[in-house]
Amino acid sequence: MIHHNTIAPRDAQWREQLRKALTAKERTAIPRCRMPELDAAYRVTCNEEVNQGISRGQAVLEATRCLDCPDPACVSGCPVQINIPGFIKNIQRGDIIQAAAVLKETSALPAVCGRVCPQEKQCESKCIYHKMGRQPVAIGYLERFAADYDRDAGTPAPEPPSPNGHSVAVVGSGPAGLSFAGEMVRLGYKVTVMEALHEIGGVLKYGIPEFRLPNSIVEAEIDSLRRQGVQFMTDVVVGKTITYDKLIADGYDGVFVASGAGLPRFMGVPGENLVGVMSSNEYLTRVNLMGAGRKGYATPVKKGHRVAVVGGGNTAMDSVRTALRMGAEHAYIIYRRSEKEMPARVEEVCHAKEEGVEFLTLWTPVEFRGDDKGNVTTAVLQHMRLGEPDASGRRAPEPIEGDIMELDVDEVIISVGVSPNPLIPRSLEGEGLEVGRKGTIEVNEDMQSSIPALYAGGDIVRGGATVILAMGDGRRAARAMARAIEGR
Ligand code: FAD
Ligand code: SF4
């Protein structure tokens, strides 16, 4: 048996020998590599990245597990169809820079996706190893390894082609906007990204905490775009400080709207306006983007001792784990279904549990109560059971009559979903922009809206989705807009 942790980096000859020496059966017998992690007791005291990344030796051995299936199902499981066997085989051969080059053919932010994509529900869920009753190839770990190696090696960004004389504007600097910008600059367009906040990165900066996705990783990707010629403007609120019509009058040939879904939803239960109850968007933005709780920053944020986070998605896990790092003594997840139905990544749930988060599943708040100063003190919780599947395909929660409990809290973070940012759709109401029932911008298969020069993608089109889907939209929109502009 070959153990991951006993393998050290070796030379190309050793790797070739390893590949030839092992039969498919032997390769499938290699155990899946394990991601080294910071100890739970230590990591809750700081913001350091929990997952430490696999070593080169681990990566080569993990890549050796891949059977190079003739019809690789993993590729169809990836929303942007990365050439998975292609990049994995390069790692196995020891050509990590080439592995990263294969990733970059399809993904603008491989170091980000390798960290935050729900691989267990996407590419890894389709890996042939499942059919053998074994753990899938660790595609996400390998993606992260190759992207980090490439960045640390300082591989230069490709030289952009000579300018083609056209310019395009991007509204919003999250993964959809960044991916669109990367594609367009590589096609010779002058690209200007306009961002309402004072930082570039969208949810990657203001939402996902550094213990999961360090800012330095996002910054490196943004710097690479800058070096390729993308211009970034912060504190520009399109629809307020500048209108769509003005952008077109200024000579932009097309506008890509990637303004995301940053509008928090609330539950509509009594007491949601008490002091100490807030949305996860507000909480995470204060802490991640505005430095609340850190030395030298004046941004206020409540540091609760008994913090309840309502919801079961990644945002809820990020909020509850942030609350622990802000000093909470008791941190709860309150979720109305069972753990099986939780939309959060399995890894995030696991990490939250290791860090001491208490999970109250099959409970939902029906009221929040406060003291005479208006501070929240109690969450009144209704016990639920699961009934028949609803429109989402998950079993619908139903209240168990009379089964109520009270939980002492001094801070509540509501994380029950988001809606599209309404500013752009509202600002174009009279101009024929088609908007869906839930406030999303309606687009065709080219991501083109009912206003021909306006394309849109990411969460503003899908509602809350994922980083990789937003990036895929950016890429598709860029190619279609370029075809339209060049055909004009
Ligand atoms: P965003 O990332 O939201 O970026 C939109 C940007 O547009 C923002 O910066 C906003 O300020 C800006 N903007 C809005 N209006 C204007 C305007 N009028 N003018 C100028 N700028 C404007 N997905 C995963 O795949 N894995 C995860 O682990 C994961 N974890 C998450 C954790 C949290 C806390 C949150 C909130 C989301 C998470 N997601 C995760 C979802 C994922 O981050 C989003 O689906 C993705 O970021 C959407 O990308 P986007 O580019 O469409 O929008
Ligand atoms: Fe490799 Fe698994 Fe994809 Fe097959 S399905 S090519 S074994 S990663």
Structure description:
With 488 residues, the protein is an alpha/beta fold. The chain is built from 20 helices and 15 strands. Strands 3-2-1-4-15 form a five-stranded parallel β-sheet. It has a five-stranded parallel β-sheet with strand order 6-13-7-8-9. The protein has a three-stranded antiparallel β-sheet with strand order 10-11-12, with no helix packed on it. Strand 11 (376-389) and strand 12 form a beta hairpin. Bound molecules: flavin-adenine dinucleotide and iron/sulfur cluster. Iron/sulfur cluster binds next to helix 5 and helix 6.
Brief rundown of the structure:
By secondary structure, the protein is α/β, with parallel strands linked by helices.
Summary keywords:
binds iron/sulfur cluster, 5-stranded parallel sheet, alpha/beta, 488 residues, disordered N terminus, binds flavin-adenine dinucleotide
Shape: globular
Which ions and ligands are bound to the chains?
Answer: flavin-adenine dinucleotide, iron/sulfur cluster
Instruction: Estimate the mean pLDDT confidence.
Output: 93
Order of strands across the main sheet: 3-2-1-4-15
> How many DSSP helices?
20
Specify the structural class.
alpha/beta
Cα-based radius of gyration, to the nearest Å = 24 Å
- Termini separation (Å)? 62 Å
Low-pLDDT sequence parts? 1-10
Tell me the number of strands: 15
Oligomer: single chain
Largest sheet composition: 5 strands, parallel
Percent of residues in β-strands: 15-25%
Helix content percent band: 25-40%
